[in-house]
Amino acid sequence: MANLGKYTLFNNEIIPTEEANVSVASSAVLYGLSVYSVFYGQHTADGMLCFRLPEHLKRLKQSAMMIGLTNVEAELEKDFKLDKISELIKANNVNKDQFFRLTVH
Length: 105
Prior knowledge:
By secondary structure, the protein is an alpha+beta fold.
């Protein structure tokens, strides 16, 4: 099982991971309608360096739109997500190299 952080970005809010729930009636559960991207983060003295994160976000947005998740287009704007991802990394006090997963339902 994956090691989850204490906090999660859920509905554009950073919340405790145990509070992030998806309904069993959601399209992600009923029809498997979700897309994801995994990117690598290297911890440095200057903070977390994430490998090609803008490109990962662009592909994630394109993938979401391809399967009809058009309501997420504005939420996946690059600058907004980069800021939220930075906030999430700080909230979880990430202090080692690791992989991150972004999932859109």
